[in-house]
Amino acid sequence: MSDLTLEQAQAVVQAGLAESASRGLAMNVAVVDAGGNLQAFARMDGAWLGSIDIAIRKARTSRYFDMPTGALGELSQPGGPLFNIEVSNGGLITFPGGLPLEVDGQVIGAVGVSGSTVEDDHAVATAAAAAVLGAAGA
After folding, report:
1. 38-43 and 106-114 strand pairing
2. Name one Pfam family in it (predicted).
3. Domain 6-134 classification at class level
4. How confident is the model at residue 133 (pLDDT cuts 50, 70, 90)?
5. Domain spans in the chain, listed from the N-terminal domain onward
6. Roughly what angle, to the nearest 10 degrees, separates helices 6-22 and 118-134?
């Protein structure tokens, strides 16, 4: 299994911070490696303290299941096939803002973003995740 490099993780965080700033938002951006371990993190000035844990959990949730956290959330609604999955693994986050990081079709980590609406969180995570490809040769 390939793993995320520190340079890639830092590029993802920097892209998330840049996108957050361009939107006038203060966000927390977390990146986990292929094993779900925190590799890089940044909390922008003024970002909610409560979103630190949420960003990290979004990244881990996305890596544990190799899917966007919003997609997992759709499956975990009452009556859904994964109802109550959020209480597993020490607590998961099943709303948008977490995305797998892929290079050449292989998941090498994940990013989690928290600090605004779920729509903003997802948009910033999308911009951040795209940066892994720019740093893929690292």
Report:
1. unpaired
2. HbpS-like
3. alpha beta
4. confident
5. 6-134
6. 140
